[in-house]
Structures are given as structure tokens and as C-alpha cells.
Amino acid sequence: MSEQPPQSNTVRTNLVGGLGAAALVGMAGCDLVHKQVQGVTGTAHAEVLPLPNTPAAQEARHLLNRVAFGAKPGDVARVAQMGTKNWLEEQLADTLPEDPIVNWRVNSIDLQERVRSAPDTANDVDNAQLVAETLQAAILRAVYSRHQLRETLADFWTNHFNIYALKNNERELVAIDTEQVIRPHTLGKFRDLLLASAHSPAMLSYLDNQQNKKGVANENYARELLELHTLGVKSGYTQKDIQEVARCFTGWRLKTTGDIRYDVGSVLASTKDPHPGFLYDPTLHDDGAKFIPFLNLHLVPNGGKKDADMVLERLVTHETTAMFLSRKLCRRYLGHVPPEIVTRASNAYLKNDTDICAMLRPILLDGVFDPTRNRPIFKRPLDFTVSALRAVSADTDGGEALQKHLSSMGQALYQWPMPDGFPEKAAAWTGSLLGRWNFALALTGQQIGGTTIDLEAPFKALKAQDDADKVKTLVEMILNVPADSNEVRPLVATLNNHIAQAKRSNLPEKSIFAEVAALVIASPAFQWR
């Protein structure tokens, strides 16, 4: 998907959102910043440890594939040693100090530095750069963060509350939605997340609530609020419910400096404002009586903004919403929807005041560890890309060269045009297989700008000297499966044959094992989590 940047002087948005680390340099170019960041943080290579051939190690592998964006070298051994449930509790608590490499690299992104130190210069940022640098921050966090559950949830909620960055002025709004709406609430209360989304200038603009006025109700936001954000499409509400909810949201707007421009000043205003950028205009609100049948909610005349506030509260505490969210989270982490787990998660959500962690506990603690409650999940391009980067301990800037591969596989983040978010079913992604091959070859062949890997490091760490040892090292490091197991024995044979043929062609050994690593990443075993 592509679009020419609009020819306007639209004011850009603030990206500050709890990022907190000091900037490295002022307005330096991206390449220079990345090199200077590396000088402070060092490269991102993980410690390579032998893969334990134990049930605990395989349980750790499964957990990291489901709850994290895959394992980095040594992660399986470390998680197996500390205990999978202990690691999961650590992720749910979300109190680990962040790896400095994440803070330094994210905070060195040009746009974020501009907004922190010189907000007035944000006007100079190109539209395409706004989207690219929002995606860059997401990739860096997914690859390097210690808070892997938080990062997979950030991706989940970004899709749940999907916004198309190429519509209207969304490029200027989607970054702040990511930083100030989605990320602060990934493991908090769903009530807070829904309220933040409902007041989000990006969401109000994307779903046309700017045009929702008394007498001329626009139903777009109301429809998606019920269908995608809370109740679910087959929950039983009717067109009448949509119409009445739309009336409740008349007058909900975003602050502007004219008809289309977002007021960056409102974003940079006092943090006492819980919803910066949002404006309720009582002159545009339908103050008549309202009745929403599905919610059995009667609203008296002259309710003002409270009409919509009451709708949101009723929706967020509705058992149908609890069931809908629980089913979606089960599909994300279990690959299907076990009824008993959905019921437990839904009950936990309702009993704990819409707490997302409480809802996740039965899904992760009871579901992930039970093989009868799991199904294979085909990796979407983001999962595939990030898990590959993590598996080979890549050093990446998350920049445009990497993003082009993600786009070629069909998942250019923030660019899905429909409000339902990127599809989950494997069939939607079969067309990305060629792009996956190309990415694997480019990654291991050092052909992605801003991204490097060191395949010699694991060989040295594990003292792999002959071809068989090197194949074993790569298979176990990338797939986290013993190289002599039935699961990968055919792959190992294929790799050994490839090496023999390549040597007969006099290919350099470095190139041969780069191809071997690519074959492992492109293998069917790596496409599923």
C-alpha cells in the first residue's frame, strides 16, 4: 500500500510516552545516531548457551514462542532453569528494569528526540518518516525488550484498536495513539484502555466521529465500538443499538487548529489533562432521550458527555465483552478457544474490575502449559521477522531497510485499511512465503541495511568446528529443538546435503553457513509458534 504524502503544513503530534532516557545527540541523522547508540550500548548479541535436552527446556521453548516473540540464544536454558511459571509470573508483574539498549535505541529515534527537546521542529518531519519511525520503535522494543509479554500485548491491542495510518491525517496521530493510548494500558485495566481509545484523536478521526453531530449522526465509530472493540459481531446487538450509541457520541471531537489540522499544543499541554487532544462540543451533542436495547440502558435527556461515558462503562463491564476479549486472547496465545479457559478468563475479568492481567492468568497459566488446549499458530510476518532477529541475535536499527521486508511480506504496520486489524488465519499469509525466503536470505547474507548478525559467535561459544557441529549449533539455536530429534531430522539431512553440494561448487564457507541459517529460518518448523 502506498500513498503520496498530502501537500499540507499539518502540525505533527507528540510522541512522548514514558520513554524517559536522555537523548544521545540532537538532530543527527539516523545512521549516525545508530552508530553512536551502538558505541554506548554495544552490539546486541546474546549469550549462547547449550540447549538442554529436557522436558523443561521444551516447555520453555513453547512458552517463549507463545508469550514472547520467540527465544534469543540462551533464553530457553535460562527460562528452563528459573522455571517457566516463575518466568511467566515475572512477565505478568511487568516490573523488570528495562534493558538499557531498548531505552537508548528507541529514544535516539529522530522524531522522538525532536519532540522531547525541540517540539517546534516536529513540523519539519516528513509524513512517511512519521510512520516509519513509529514502526521502528515497535520493532526495536519487540526485538530487545525484556518485557516480552508486554510487547506481544502491545501488538495485540494495536490490532484490536486498529487505525489506518494512511487515511486523512492519521500519520500525525497514530504515533501518539501508540505511545499514549495503547502502551500505557497493555497490562492494566481494559476500562482505562477503552476510555483512552474512545478519547483518542486518532480513533475519532479514523472512524469519522468528527462528522458525528446531532441530526446528522455518523455511525462509524459506534459500529466498530460494538463490533470490534467490545461485544463482537455476533453478540446479538442490532442496527438500533448502533444508531443509539452513535447519538451518544455526538459532539466527541479532536482539538484542531482549523478544519483538519491537529493541535500539537494540546498534546504538549499539562499532563493533568487525562485526554489531551480530545474535545467535547456540547453544541453538537444530541441531548434527546436515548435507549440502547442490547445494554438495557435508558438515558435521560440533557445527559451531555455522560451519555457516552455511561455507554462505555456498560460495555466494558458487560459479560459479552468479557467473553469476546477472552476468546481473542485465547486465539492469540493458545491458537484456539477452549470453552473452559474462556469462561475462567471471562469470570476473572469481571471479578477483577476489567483487569487484563487477571484475564490472562487462566489463559497463560492453565492454557499455555496444557498441550490439549494448544494448537499450532502460523506466524504473521511481524512475528516471523522479530523471532528471526531474536533467534540469530541480530543487531538492528529497525529502520526502513528492514521495514521494506516486512511490507513485502504483507504486514506494513499501521497500514491495514480496515478497522479489524491484520488477519489471524494462516490462509491470509500464504502469499508471504516468497517474501519470507527473501528476508531469510537477506538477513543471513548481511544484505539488510542497519541489521547485522554474527554467525561465528555461536560456533565459537559452543566450540563447533566441523560441519555437523555447525549444523547442530544453528538448528538448536534457531529452532530450540535438539538436532537429533525426529522433529528436525529430515531438515538436518537436507542441510548436510546442501553443504556437500555447496562445497563441490567451491562456495566460501561463510556463504555456505549463511545459506544454512537461512534454510533453517525459512523451514516449516520456524513458520509456526
In short, what is this structure?
The chain is mainly alpha-helical and 529 residues long.
Structure explained in plain terms:
This protein has 529 residues and is mainly alpha-helical. The protein has a two-stranded antiparallel sheet with strand order 1-2. A two-stranded antiparallel sheet has the order 3-4. It has 26 helices and six strands.
Protein topology:
Blueprint: H1 30-41, H2 55-67, H3 75-82, H4 84-93, H5 100-107, H6 110-117, H7 127-144, H8 148-160, H9 171-182, H10 190-198, H11 201-206, H12 220-230, H13 239-248, E1 252-254, H14 264-267, E2 278-280, E3 290-292, E4 297-299, H15 306-316, H16 319-334, H17 339-351, H18 356-368, H19 381-391, E5 395-396, H20 400-408, H21 433-444, E6 451-452, H22 456-461, H23 467-479, H24 489-504, H25 509-522, H26 524-527
Antiparallel strand pairs: 1-2, 3-4, 5-6
Low-pLDDT sequence parts:
1-30, 257-271
The number of E-state strands comes to: 6
Shape type: elongated
Query: How does the major sheet shape up?
Result: 2 strands, antiparallel
Helix content: 40-55%
Structural class: mainly alpha
As a percent range, the share of strand residues is under 5%
**Average of pLDDT:** 88
Rg (C-alpha, Å): 24 Å
Q: Please work out how many helical segments DSSP would assign.
A: 26
Instruction: Name the strands of the widest sheet in spatial order.
Output: 1-2
CA-to-CA gap between the ends? 27 Å
